[in-house]
Queue: 2 jobs
Job 1
Amino acid sequence: PGSDLELRRAEMALVTCPTASIGTLGKHDLGAAIGAFPEPVEDNVRFCGFASEDSFGGSSYLIVRPEGNVLVDSPRYTAPLVRRLEALGGVKWMFLSHIDDVADHQKFRDHFGCERVMHADDASFEVERPVEGRELLRLAGDLLVIPTPGHTAGSQTLLHRDKFLFTGDHVWWNPEDRRLGASRRYNWHSWGEQRRSMERLLDFAFEWILPGHGARHRAPAEEMKRLVRDLVSRMT
């Protein structure tokens, strides 16, 4: 790292790394990097860091709300993060986008008593709020569950305040190509159904895509709609 900012980002990457593959040559105090999580993204949305190997290093997020916080997918269950989640108000709901990224869900459930929201077609364990079929589920006025099967049979996305779309492994930003991406190679259910689910996203307005894997992206709602249309046209 060539600056204090780059050093801090490297330390945060070390804390986030699910396999402890990042190290240091000398002794470092990681207290500030650990305390930086959950890291603010925008408004009331935060990135949890502390990725879990059991979720293949997937990203997880926290939505901080007066009515109760939402943990999106599962980070690693570790004491420093749990204490920060407690300080931010705990966890009311745990939204699980699909079966690949559930990691330490049971530990978070046991500690916080949160309700897990997961599609029945992916749930291999009992959950408190199963989602059925392709019907939308309004968890609260600012939280809409959108079933988006394809990557897995029970993949689903979460829309918050018509601004933040949490997408799991359904769609992500490809910074090299400057466009949205989805993976046919890592599709475990149906590519055709994933394309139809992608097209379904055109019915909604949002400015952020916050995926489990891949880069996140922000754009004006109309530009985001154009990017989704472009992706649908390429999903042949």
Job 2
Amino acid sequence: MKAEVLRHIDAVNTPSAREQGQGPGRLRIEREGPIARLVIDNPGRRNALSRHMWQSFAPALAGLERDPDIKVLIVQGAGGTFSAGADIREVEAILRGDSETSEGGDLTVAEEALAGFRKPTIAAIDGHCVGGGWELAGACDLRVATEDAMIGITPARLGIVYPLSGIARLVRLVGPATAKRLLLTGDLITAPEAQRAGLLSATVPRATLRHEVDGLAHRLADGSQFSAWAHKSLIDEIAAGSHGLAELSSYWQREMAHSPDAAIGVRAFLAKERPAFAWRGPWSSAAQI
């Protein structure tokens, strides 16, 4: 496995942790074949996310999206905890952001970058997934948690207003009544309850989390990336109630005629062989977008 620490992002795009007088928290990328892991790495503070960590998400994700060798992204925490959320010492600055950032500041920029990542994403949730940690998990396509994980959205405990993008995503997942319960009480709920509410795709024993998530990621990677990108974008537009849905659907139908994957899939099916799909996104020579 090749591990890449995002020092280049800190140096180029944000002040380093040391320059900001912060602790050792960082994002870390691990690559294993077609799978990338984006690891929230600040275990000494239960993977609380400092401002420079929030600011590292968008450039990190942009690089992974352009990489034709990466097909699936797993987001996880280090050391047995997904994330305790935004570092409480910096929460006001994180939510305020810079003058150029949108409502919700650095947190919303990171969350929208993850939600807009065009390749399939999986949140592997262990331990606590709270506040801004949940906002990141909620921005992933699929969420797999250990049976003893705890999920919470806690602005009521801090006297803050959750960013609109996160509220909208929560309502789409669980409906208004459950969203109100979670936001107004700040209660932590168990993973089985979170799955019943629609927050999680699956719960698994802690000992099998890595195995289950890796297996899911490789199944996603084995499929057509053209099909995955198309269906992910269409489902997201349907969920958001977009008025441009018909145009987007027509676009993907037109592009299907140019993608090599349809012919590859049909040939493999008829030959009873495993397809070796070729489409890798608009940065690939195989793509016609």
